[in-house]
């Protein structure tokens, strides 16, 4: 068998409703390339980054779906921008809660990625590989280990409740961590809270981060989190005004 036979893999994913799936993926910018009514419902969609096929599984529970696939792309931020803008046109907002939903891109050790969960609960992990391993934290301590676990639960697994439990266990001892790690932990906990719509908790940890005094060197190390604090503060203020 030639090597060319291994160049393309096409996920075949379950759905409760073909119409529901196609409506969502067309909103993202996918093209419907095939639809079959008999002998069974089946459909195909295609985008420049991936082709997906769907079949109907009537007993499917989207909230407990385990179906997923990883999609490698050259520029994950460009794909996220395209998808989120298309979702705004269709739904008048970026869907960040419930099903379907999309998360913002985040840096993990292996890649920078975002999660796309469709109406059937299928999870697409869309990412761009780093040219070199990127450590989440460079410290070795119980606090650092908990932070890394919480970070992965939040951004790789999309499990904010579990991420909160892990981080809350060590936050009372935050003073034992370095200033930059402590700052990152406060920002992570605030982001987790916003994702769960726990606005009071989010506000508390944004305030904790803002109260910290960091050197220029330390600010450079947490530049991404510093910008994240601004986003979180804006989200909290929008919620307070609504």
From TrEMBL:
Keywords: Antibiotic resistance. Gene3D superfamilies: 2,3-Dihydroxybiphenyl 1,2-Dioxygenase, domain 1. It comes from Paenibacillus arenilitoris. This is VOC family protein. It comes from the Bacteria. GO terms for biological process: response to antibiotic. The keyword DNA repair does not apply.
